[in-house]
């Protein structure tokens, strides 16, 4: 059975973690969660309030990481999912995060990323020349990294599928599962 890796950390967006996690399981993929350390992660939820210029943040659910990023052997995984939230702000500084994520892009394996995950990808150089979506406030990060920002719900560029934020998840995951079924079909 192909394995999917989801990288998350504390302050990962709750909905952007659980929706793809459950969809991967539903599709029949063995799904592992990696984080800077093997521990119970604390997620957050972001929402929009009338009259407020940006989003608000509340405490979300918790979920255990299956393994630390240092222990990830990326060649064992068929695809990668990167949720957003505030987690990417610090994940991008982790050398093992950079090692693991770069493998997926170098090997042209399927990658799904959403929202603020783009700010963790930008310093890696993997967005250069690539059409990608992200939370619109991240557009400058995508463009400074040489990417082409697209304000869309399910932007497909080769094996990479991106989206703006959790309201896009049905279209985002539908497109990503289409790529997975072609590149790394689940068994059974």
From TrEMBL:
Protein's name in the database: Peptidase
Family: Belongs to the peptidase C56 family.
Pfam families the record matches: DJ-1_PfpI (PF01965)
Superkingdom, natural source: Bacteria
Domain DJ-1/PfpI: 3-177
Matching InterPro entries: C56_PfpI-like (IPR006286), Class_I_gatase-like (IPR029062), DJ-1/PfpI (IPR002818)
PANTHER family found in the cross-reference section: DJ-1 PROTEIN, DJ-1_THIJ_PFPI FAMILY PROTEIN
